[in-house]
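To: structure desk
From: M.T.
Subject: fold request, one chain
Message: Could you run this one when you get a chance? Sequence is below, nothing fancy, just the single chain.
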Amino acid sequence: MSEGIAGPISPIVGEVGTYPFARLDEAKRVARERGIALIDFGVGDPREPTAPQIRDALIAGVKETLEYPKAVGLPALRTAIAEWIGRRFGVALDPDREILPTLGSKEAVFSLAQVVVDLPGGKDLVVVTEPGYPVPARGARFAGAEVISLPLREARGFLPDLDAVSEIQWNRVAVVWVNYPNNPTGARAPLSFYEELSARAARHGFWIASDEAYSELSFDDQMPVSALQVRDRSHVVVINTLSKRSSMTGYRSGFIAAPERLIAALKSYRPTVGTAPQEFVQMAACVAWGNETHVEEARARYRVKREILESVLVSKGLRVAGSEAGMYLWMALPAGVGSLAYAEQLLDHGIVVAPGVFLGPSGEGFVRFALVPTIDDCRRAAAILQEAL
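Reply: Done. Structure tokens follow.
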């Protein structure tokens, strides 16, 4: 066997470390080997049934032969997305010039930095928030950018302090990532927040990337707003998905809505990386974006699940923080209780939650319950929590 010089591996691979929820998967594996039956509130993978009409459209789209899907997506899907945006947010977008279907939202979130970061010496900073979804920062690092993390504090309504970025830094920023309704805190952002970001973007020339995966899930009748609703959309990029809205995580179907010049750049970039959704999935997505009944039913179920768990958790000394919208309960722990230790305690009783620290340093002191188990399993979990805590 040859003992020559080893082939290179990007140092970024080691730098970003293990994906946080891979650690959670390992903890669950060990618990199962110990014979513990688990009720899993750890990962936000909905287990609500996908609506029958969506599944039927998927099956109907599977033809005897299928060509490579085009990166620009089916015209019918782009139109369905544009029509949904118009109904939901009152914003008119050109389906051919301002919308691009994606393979879910994760790949779009990761790859945006590859298109907008300008190296060397130009727009080489990416601003993210924490605790939060780790993919924007990871995508930025693989694009060679420097990352600034802004903490989300309860005292600020889980909104970032934009003044923490200096004027010199703003001039280097390529993109600012925001995510509302927020994962994990469940906070909503007011339109005034997006307007403030839009004004800064116009002044400093960066993109606002708004991950709105949870826009259709709310625990009350106040539906979240979108960054698309700002007066000046010239710097706004919105990414959304059917994963949470329509319980279609396994379908991998989402979209990017952005100004024409960025969509044109993405149309040039994306065929190279082969991320076009399969056409039968796109046909199912057309049906999903055109139907609201199944979304309303899912919202109602999430509200029931929250009610079941919230009462017992509060009675045991935890406090609801944020948790206005989305599919998560963000629970503040009693003073001095660590999130990892608390999660390990619950795991011993078969309840899986995400320690807040897994989602970022500012998540310490909190745990996240993803309300994905069935209503019956939530009732079982509440009974276990009543006895265990």
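Reply (cont.): The radius of gyration is 21 Å. Let me know if you need anything else for the meeting.
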